[in-house]
Amino acid sequence: MNKTTIYGIFDDEEVLLSSVKEIRSNEIHIKEVYSPFPVHGLDHALGIKETRMAITAFIYGCIGLTFGIALIYYIMISGIYKSWPMNIGGKPNWTLYHNLPAFVPVLFELTVLFAGHLMSITFFIRCGLFPGNPEVSPDPRTTDDKFLMEIEVDGDISKVKKMLTKTGATEINLKE
Amino acid sequence: MQRESEIRDPLILGKKSYHDITRDVSRPVEGKANKYWWALFSLSLVLFGWGVLCILYTVGTGIGSWGLNKTINWAWDITNFVWWIGIGHAGTLISAVLLLFRQKWRMAINRSAEAMTIFGVVQAGLFPVIHMGRPWLAYWVFPIPNQFGSLWVNFNSPLLWDVFAISTYLTVSTVFWYIGLIPDFAMLRDRMSAKIAPMKKKLYSFLAFGWTGKAKHWQRFEEVSLVLAGLATPLVFSVHSIVSMDFATSVIPGWHTTIFPPYFVLGALFSGFAMVETLLIIMRKVVNLESYITIKHVVYMNVIILLTGSLVGTAYITELFMAWYSGVEYEQYAFINRATGPYWWSYALMMGCNVLTPQLYWIKSIRESFIATFVLSIFVNIGMWFERFVIIVTSLHRDFLPSSWTMFSPTFIDIGVYLGTIGFFFVLFLMYARTFPVIAQAELKTIVKSSGSEYKK
C-alpha cells in the first residue's frame, strides 16, 4: 500500500489547536505540525513529552563548576610539584577553602559558560540544526503566517481530508 | 492563547496581520539602503579607519603615545572600556531579565538591544588588549599550559576575573542572540527567491541552520531561551560587579569602597538604556518600524532611566556621606577634591547629566516625547562617560606623594582610538540594521492578538 502525506494548512493558531485536539481524539496520528511561532499548548495537544533541556543545563553547570574547582586547585593550590607557590597579597594559598572567596567569581563564570554553551550545543544536536543544513519545511509559508499539519495516511484519505476541512483547514495539499 | 487587560496600552499599532509583520521586518533586508544610511555608514567607516591607524600607531610605538604618565597610569583606555561594557548591559537586561518577568514590550526591542550589547562588548574588549602593548600575546591572560614551569595566571586578581567574566558574557550573549535569530533567518530564507536573489537565499539558508518550526523544536527553543535568560541574568550583574572590583579591591582612596558593585551595575543599566534609546529612536524612523517601537516602549525605558538615574545619584551622595562618616581624611580629601579640585568641571558634568537631567522625566510631556528623549539620552551617554573619567582620573591624579601630583591630558591618539571604537560600533550596527531581522518577528507574532491595537478594540 502506498502512503499519502496530507498537508492541512491553517490561518490561525487557535483554529489549529482545536483541530489538533479534535483530530487526535479521532485516533488519527499527526506526524508533525509546523508553525511560524511557538503556539502555547500545542505540545500538550500533540502529546509531546516535556523537554529535558533545563536538566541538561543543570548537569553542564555542575560539570563547569567541578572543572573550575579542579583548575583553580591545580593552578593556585597544588601547583606543578609545588615548585612556585604564589604569595599574593598575603592571601593564604595552602588550602582551597582558605582562599575560596577570591575564587568565587571565576567559579561562577565557568559554571555559566559551561551550562550556556553546552546546553545550546545539545539543543542544536537534538534538533538536527547546523550551519548550512538544507532542510526546509513542506511549505515555505509556515515561517510567515501559515500553520501546517502533516498527516501520513495508509489507503483511504477522504476521512482525514473531511476532518481537516471540518475543523477549519483553509487549504489541503497531497503528496504521494 | 494569552489575554491582556483592556486598559493596557497596545504595543503594536495599526492593523497588523502575521504577514504584515513578516513584510515589515524583511523590508530593510530586501530593499536598498537610502542615502542617509550611506552617509552615516561612510562617516562611521572613516572614524573606524582613523581608529585603526591610531591603534596601529599605539602598537607600533608603545603606550607612551597615549597621555598616560607615572601617576595617572589608567585614563581614557579604561574609561572607554567601562563605558562600552556598561552600554552592553541594557541589551541583556531587556532580553533576559524582562523575559523572566514576562514583559511583552521587550519583544520589539530585544533584538537590537542585544546587538548593541554584543557590538559594545567587542569595543570594550579592544581596550585592555591594546593596553597590553603587545596584543599578539593577549592569549597569556588565559590559563593555558606553558613552557615557563608553573607560571600561571593569578586567580586572586580581579583583572583575571574580568577575563573570565567578559569572555563568558560576550560568548553567552552571542549564543542567546543567535538562537533567537534562527527562526527569523528561516523566515528570510523562505521569503527570498532563488531566482532573484540567489546569493541572499544561500546566505540565509546557511544562517538558518535548517530551521523548520516543528512543534518539538519550538518547545525546546522556548525552554532553551528561558534557561539562557536565567543564566544571563546573574551573569549580567556579575560582569559589571567584577569590572567595579578592578577598582574596589585596590587601596586607592576613592576606589576602595564596598558600594562599587551595585553602583556600577546601576550605572551600566542607566547608560545602556540611554544608548538603546539613542539607537532605536533613529532606527524606528529609518527602517519604518513606528508601529512596533512605539512611544509606549520609550516611556517604559524612560521610567527605567529615571529609576536607575535616581539610584546612581543616591550612590554618589552615599559615597560623599561615607567619606565624611569614615573619618579618614585621605578618603575625605579624595571626594572634596573631586567636587572642588582641578577636575571640578568633569564632576559637575557627571552630576548634571546623570542626576539632574533625568529628573525631567517626572514631567509627562517630556517622558512622552521622542525628541526630548533623544536629547536626554545623549546627555546620559555623555554623563556616564564622565562618571568613569571622574572615578578613574581624579582618584589617581592626587598620588600618595604630593611631588607626584599631576594632571592628565589626552593625546590625539587617545582621542583617535576612542572615536575609532565609536566608528567601529556604528559600522557593525548599521550593517546589522541592513542584513539582520531587526525585530524578533517570531516572538512578536505571539502577542499580536493580545497586545495589537486592532485586537484590543
Could you explain how this protein is built, in words?
- The complex is a heterodimer of chains A (176) and B (457).
- Chain A has 5 helices and 4 strands.
- With 176 residues, chain A is an alpha+beta fold.
- Chain A folds into 2 domains: 3-50 and 145-175, Alpha-Beta Plaits; 53-127, no CATH class.
- The longest helix of chain A has 28 residues, at 100-127.
- With 457 residues, chain B is mainly alpha-helical.
- Chain B is globular.
- Chain B has helices at 18-30, 35-61, 76-100, 110-131, 158-191, 198-207, 215-248, 260-286, 295-326, 329-340, 344-356, 364-367, 370-397, 412-435, 441-445, 448-451.
- The chains are: A alpha+beta (176), B mainly alpha (457).
Mean pLDDT of chain B: 89
Approximate shape of chain B: globular
What radius of gyration of chain B results from the CA coordinates? 23 Å
> What is the total domain count of chain B?
1
At the first level of CATH, what is the class of the largest domain in chain A?
Answer: Alpha Beta
Which architecture of chain B per CATH? Up-down Bundle
- Which percent band covers the strand fraction of chain A? 5-15%
Strand order of the largest sheet of chain A: 2-3-1-4
Q: Number of domains in the coordinates of chain A?
A: 2
Please name the two chains that share the biggest interface, counting residues whose Cβ lies under 8 Å from a Cβ on the partner chain: A-B, 67 and 69 residues
Number of helices of chain B: 16
Which class do the helix and strand fractions of chain A yield?
alpha+beta
| Cα-to-Cα separation, first versus last residue of chain B | 17 Å
Which consecutive residue ranges of chain B, at least 5 long each, have pLDDT under 50?
A: none
The largest sheet of chain B is: none
Assembly state of the chains shown: heterodimer
- Determine the mean pLDDT of chain A: 85
> Kindly, what is the distance between the CA atoms of the first and last residues of chain A, rounded to a whole number of angstroms?
11 Å
Fold-level CATH name of the largest domain in chain A: Alpha-Beta Plaits
Q: Helix and strand string of chain A, N-terminal first?
A: EHEHHHEHE
